[in-house]
Amino acid sequence: MKTSTHTLALNTTKATAFAFLSRIDNLPKWATQFCLELRVDAQGRHKIMTPQGEIFFRIDGDAKSGVLDMYGGPTEDQLAYWPARIVEWPGQGSLFIFTAMQYPGVSDTDFAAQCEGLKQEFVHIKQHTE
Asked: How many CB atoms lie within 10 A of CB 99?
């Protein structure tokens, strides 16, 4: 499995970045290529429409440690995992660190496109947190 880690320097505090990114309601504001629509189903579960179709999605976060892990997939027991962290950058602000993983069935071309798309989403994070 290939991985690709992406880091975004933010001119804001860890707390501010975490408060924005940990809220699933903000996903459509910054992940504009990935999250075309966010909705809550009758059971209270979050689903997003992606370019590849609808998936379940959740974010598990811990403000103290900066853990911000994201999960998504076609069913709740088939969720891919995307680990992310927000850490203080002393004297500079904070860093958002996101690791993309190439899961089985995802071509090298599609994985590269996903990683490039993530880089393009970073501008939205900056717009909403700085």
From this structure: 15
